[in-house]
Amino acid sequence: MAAAVLILGIGGAALLYANRAAVFKAAVPAAAPKSDLARFATGPLARLETPAILVQAPDQVFKSRDGADVRFADFRGKVVVVNLWAMWCAPCRTEMPTLARLADLYAGQDLVVLPVNVDTGADAIADATSFIDVHEPLPLYSDPSFRLPFVFPGEGKMPQTILLDRQGRIRAAFAGEADWAGPQARALIEALLAEPD
After folding, report:
1. From CA 73, how far away is CA 62, in angstroms rounded?
2. Which H or E run includes 191?
3. Strand pairing partners for 172?
4. Cβ(87)–Cβ(159) under 8 Å?
5. Pairing of strands 79-85, 141-142
């Protein structure tokens, strides 16, 4: 009996060893499918997420400078670079000049650079207003409910930049600081602008 158990144990171990690649491969979750924009996830944008399954931007309300309700659907027909930022986030402030430069480079084209501040409280929003005013031509939008960072792929990471196509679908997302006026980012934006309406 002991010999039979030993033989079965050795046989099972041999089968496990022979099929180890299949066993361990099944234990590792498959990477999410990516779109053709994945070719831009290189160099400084290596962490760029480019989902193959396209979903609309959330219908979350945020505010314009004058307090009016705004939705991402209001920007349909344009390629939109949404940047979620806060004054307490040093990388957010560091990358803001690159977003201002991006807005300058594409002035008059079908691109909207949309920084949305997520600070809460009147004093913090006043500080954010003063800060954004130094980075013309960027407008001020705010989400004092601090919900937007959690409804996009970055799930609360800051800063968070999301690119929407002309139909308002999420095409790419990046969590962390980046040079949005750099050649890699411009190549990604040019690809989105070149897509048919």
Report:
1. 12
2. helix 183-194
3. 163
4. no
5. unpaired
User: Residue 46: phi, psi to the nearest 5?
Assistant: -60, -30
User: What is the rounded distance in angstroms from the CA atom of residue 37 to the CA atom of residue 31?
Assistant: 16
Pairing verdict, β 79-85 and 111-117: parallel
Question: What does DSSP say about strands 62-64 and 141-142: parallel, antiparallel, or unpaired?
Answer: antiparallel
Sign of the dihedral through C-alpha 139, 144, 147, 149: positive
**Cα gap 152→164, rounded to integer Å:** 11
C-alpha distance across the termini of the chain, in Å: 74
State how far the Cα of 82 lies from the Cα of 163, in Å rounded to an integer: 6
How confident is the model over 49-75, as pLDDT tens digits? 999 999 999 999 999 999 999 999 999
The answer to whether 180 and 81 are in contact (CB under 8 A) is yes
Residue 117, C-beta contacts closer than 8 angstroms, at least 6 positions apart:
85, 86, 87, 125, 128, 132, 140, 141, 142, 143
Rounded CA-CA distance 88/121 in Å is 13
DSSP state of 39: G
Question: Alpha-carbon distance 52 to 158, whole Å?
Answer: 23
Q: How far apart are CA 197 and CA 192, in angstroms?
A: 10
Closest CA to 173 of 154, 192, 150, 145: 154
pLDDT tops 60 at residue 22: no
- Does the pTM surpass 0.70? The reply is yes
